[in-house]
Amino acid sequence: MTTLARSADTLTRDALAVLQPGFTGTDAPDWLLRRLGEGLTSVGLFGRNVHSPEQLAALNTRLRAETDGILIAIDEEGGDVTRLEVRGGSSFPGNLALGAVDDPGLTQAVARELGRRLADCGVNLNWAPSADVNSNPGNPVIGVRSFGADPALVARHTAAYVRGMQSAGVAACTKHFPGHGDTAVDSHHDMPRIDAGLDTLQARELVPFKAAVDAGTKAVMSAHILVPALDDDLPATLSPAALHGLLRAPVASGGLGFDGLIVTDAVEMQAIAATYGIERGSVLAVAAGADAICVGGGLADEQTVLRLRDALVDAVRSGALPEERLADAAARVRALSQWTRDTAQWIRTTAAPYRAAVATASGTTADPEVGLRAARRALRLTAGSTPYEPLRTPAYVAAFTPVANIAVGDETPWGVAAELARRLPGTDTGSFSAAHAAETGTPAMISNVLREAADRRIVAVVRDVHRHPWMADALAALIAARPDTVVVEMGVPQAPPTGALHIATHGAARVCGRAAAEVITGDDAGC
Predict the structure, then answer these.
(1) At what angle do helices 53-66 and 30-38 cross, to 10 degrees?
(2) Is 188 a catalytic residue?
(3) Which residues, including other chains, have CB under 8 Å from residue 278's CB and lie 6 or more apart?
(4) DSSP states along 316-355
(5) DSSP-assigned states of every residue in 21-41
(6) Other C-beta atoms within 10 Å of 261: how many?
(7) What is the pLDDT of residues 216-252, one digit of tens each?
(8) What is the per-residue pLDDT for 408?
(9) How far is residue 472's CA from residue 466's CA, in Å, rounded to a whole number?
(10) Which pLDDT score, from 0 to 100, does residue 362 have?
(11) Which is catalytic among the residues 176, 180, 188, 224?
(12) Phi/psi class of residue 73: alpha, beta or left (left: φ > 0; alpha: ψ in -120 to 50)?
């Protein structure tokens, strides 16, 4: 092989190494296996790739057979954003519930158990936790994915989550740098903008990311948000000032001193794709300091991988992207891959036997019920004017359902209906949306609820009622007609409590629904 050919091959392998593509199906497609043999080093998994833990483990074993150094990433936050349990709901509450409990040891234990389950399935990189400070209660995309609105609280739980996840051998990827909490726009659809000054960013948004870096997070995910205090023109994902000048810069010069892997949020999100295109966006991101390009939540095919590979190669050849920067990015991907292999080996040969020998003292063995315990502790109950009597007979569940954002998805079930029906056979459910309210009007919609409920107790389930005027109107009308209604708020509990009993779960994970159902039926000894 000539020197020129060898150089071209290295360039192509480096370009493939910085991509983190997704794919469709529960089996590895042939094109993906081929590209792994050519230098592709990472893949991203989503709910569409997961049928069961056993199937996922077999899939990842097949991927690893092509290259033992593969990074297998997943977007598994627990809570509302789950891929492992996309069809049934998560066994772990999300960040807001953990923040409501405010026990960093519990957060670390939850993350460790979640990491253990990921590792058992062959996953070694988790695009979590969300370190965003949810300072804007109307935020349409973060909400319960945040530990809360207080920077110090978010910081201590972000650090605990990172330590717990990585103790299981799964690299944490803290997101969405420099902070997506003070936004009113979902970057899946458009370009959010944060107009806070640098002092505010330092005192609020950046505090959890500093904590994550100090805790040793192996990766950080950039956000597609415009922050003029950092860069007037480019969103953080494409901004040298944000990535190189702030995230990478030494602490002594005002930066965070992060030396791990910088991963972009998905480049096919409209904040990047509609403004720059995914090819140019990927080139600009790597040039700015990103090391890995996440793609595949929407675009999940071989042609996308080839387009991005070729765009990176062409940019190096044209001088738009320094070859040294691409080589450095690829080296950081491979370094993280090596860390996951070394850590997995250490856990197998040293940590696991030690933990087994001192299980009682260490508290680090498998703990399958930790998620449920956390969900129970996260409940906040507000009683009405009369004592609450637990339900002993079939109920009627009125679920007021908002449109799920893309990050959460709409395929994961949520609510309390299934748990109540299991405890109170004969319980029925009606689902009502903004479309119902617009089509029939709120009075007619509530009349329908009352007619279907008949003489049964009503349980109204809402999600972020403060963000949805139609939902607030419907709930107020229902409470006026039936003051004995039980209200379960499964989003951010921003609105004043109402109903005979108001239960704030701080998230819509399956275990949150179970914990609420236990209280509703009086089976709440574990709370």
Answers:
(1) 40
(2) yes
(3) 267, 268, 272, 295, 299, 304, 307, 308
(4) HHHTSS-HHHHHHHHHHHHHHHHHHHHHHHHIIIIIHHHH
(5) E--SSSS--HHHHHHHHHT--
(6) 26
(7) 999 999 999 999 999 999 999 999 999 999 999 999 9
(8) 65
(9) 7
(10) 46
(11) 188
(12) beta
Q: Give the C-alpha separation, 191 to 269, whole Å.
A: 9
Q: Which two tokens stand for residue 280?
A: 């140019």
Q: What is the pLDDT of residue 424?
A: 96
pLDDT one-digit tens code per residue, 335-376: 999 999 998 888 877 755 655 554 544 444 578 899 999 999
Q: Which of 113, 109, 112, 91 is nearest to 101 (CA)?
A: 109
For 59, what's the count of Cα atoms within 13 Å in the CB-facing half-sphere?
26
Any catalytic annotation for residue 523?
no
Give the DSSP letter string of 410-478: SSS--SSHHHHHHHSTT-EEEEE-HHHHHHH-HHHHHHHHHHHHTTSPEEEEESSGGG-HHHHHHHHHH
CB neighbours of 453 closer than 8 A, spacing ≥ 6? Answer: 396, 398, 482
Which residue among 265, 436, 468, 506 is the active-site one? 265
Up-side HSE of residue 245: CA atoms within 13 Å toward CB? 11
Q: What is the pTM of this model?
A: 0.94
Q: In angstroms, rounded to a whole number, what is the distance separating the alpha carbons of residues 123 and 501?
A: 41
The token pair at 182 is 């003070």
Q: 29-40 burial by CB neighbour count: b if 16+ within 10 A, else e? A: eeebeebbeebb
Number of residues assigned to the chain? 527
